[in-house]
Amino acid sequence: MIRKAVFPVAGWGTRFLPATKASPKEMLPLVDKPLIQYTVEEAVASGIELAIFVTGRGKRAIEDHFDRSWELEYVLEKQNKREQLNEVRSISNLIEVVYIRQKMPLGLGHAVLRAKSVVDNEPFAVILGDDIIDSEKPCIKQLIEIYEKFEAPVIALKRVPDEEVSRYGIIKGRELDERLFLIEDMVEKPSLEEAPSNYAIVGRYILTPDVLEELEKVQPGKGGEIQLTDALRNLANKRKFYGVVFEGEHFDCGNKLGYLMATVHFALKRKDLKLDFLQYLRRVAL
User: Fold this and answer.
1) Using one digit for the tens of pLDDT, what is the confidence trace for 173-188?
2) pLDDT > 90? residue 220
3) Where residue 47 falls among pLDDT bands split at 50, 70, 90?
4) Residue 202 confidence (pLDDT)
5) Are strands 154-159 and 199-207 parallel, antiparallel or unpaired?
6) Residue 157: CA count within 13 A, CB half-sphere
7) What pLDDT digit, counting tens, does each position of 15-25 carry?
8) CA distance 83 to 159
9) Do 135 and 249 touch, CB atoms closer than 8 A?
10) How far apart are CA 204 and CA 146, in angstroms?
11) Mind giving me the DSSP string for the chain?
12) pLDDT at 222 over 90
């Protein structure tokens, strides 16, 4: 079983400055929930029991969000705001949480490696908080099903247009089925000419414990960072490694346009907002 998920949340969020100067990027709201809550809810809906947050300086708001807020609960109860009270309480009961400090932001691979002691030789998920995926079946659940079939690492993929290839890690693989690839290699943010395909790695992974051994061997690259992609490439040379083109809509909330698109998408899914918001969008689009 995949019981644990690692959430690397120690990054600076520089693309959203000045909004992220004093508040974590992961706490930016989509309508009325922070980004990180969407990904945690996806994990819970996929059967994950333990969230491992790899945090850094200035990330205390994430810890507070998933903790009890006795003062706020008292105020809501006194004001008889039962619906809001129940919602606030439910957040702290979503999932069991562990926090690990990444004292220096030394790359995604380093963040995942920091979780080694808690992962404890089990297969685990890695979920990136700024990749928001809206799907009928949770994306991580889709990957877990492939893992359970093959007992091998699995990563989420999506086909991207030529102009977006250089923004992603791109895979080279053999297509086994309509949505399933056997990974042969992967390249981090290649030019279109160097890219082996148009299939991009999205921030969802099911990994086996041996990836941690590979991460320990990876040499730091640019900026002294340890890249997860380097360890995954090494692992793919030693064992079968799969990629799944997930079903669902993906929003890259690590950039402003993707974040705005996600805001519109989730606002239009809300019955209490849809009609008025749609009228506004039509008016400003004229």
Assistant:
1) 999 988 999 999 988 8
2) no
3) very high
4) 95
5) antiparallel
6) 24
7) 999 999 889 99
8) 40
9) yes
10) 13
11) ---EEEEE-----GGGTTTTSSS-GGG-EETTEEHHHHHHHHHHHTT--EEEEEE-TT-HHHHHHTS--HHHHHHHHHTT-HHHHHHHHHHHTS-EEEEEE-SS---HHHHHHHTHHHHTTS-EEEE-TTEEEE-SS-HHHHHHHHHHHH-S-EEEEEE--GGGGGGSEEEEEEE-SSSEEEEEEEEES--TTT-S-SEEEEEEEEE-THHHHHHHHPPP-GGGPPPHHHHHHHHHTTS--EEEE-SSEEEETTSHHHHHHHHHHHHHT-TTTHHHHHHHHHHHH-
12) no
The yes-or-no verdict on residue 119 having pLDDT over 90 is yes
Highest-confidence range of 100-104, 109-113, 166-170, by mean pLDDT? Answer: 109-113
Band of pLDDT at residue 189, cut at 50, 70 and 90: confident
Write the secondary structure of 219-252 as one string of H (helix), E (strand) and C (coil): CCCHHHCCCHHHHHHHHHCCCCCEEEECCCEEEE
φ/ψ (deg, to 5) at 142 = -60, -40
Q: What is the largest CA-CA distance in the chain?
A: 63
Question: What CATH architecture does domain 4-285 belong to?
Answer: Alpha-Beta Complex (3.90)
Counting every residue, how long is the chain?
A: 286
Tell me what pLDDT residue 104 has.
85
Q: How is residue 270 written in tokens?
A: 């809300």
Long-range pairs, 169-174, Cβ under 8 A, ≥24? 169/200, 169/201, 169/229, 170/195, 170/196, 170/197, 170/198, 170/199, 170/200, 170/201, 171/196, 171/197, 171/199, 171/200, 171/201, 171/243, 172/196, 172/197, 173/197, 173/199, 173/243
Task: Domain ranges for the chain, please list them.
Answer: 4-285
* Higher-scoring residue by pLDDT: 286, 124: 124
How far is 85 from 78, CA to CA, in rounded Å? 10
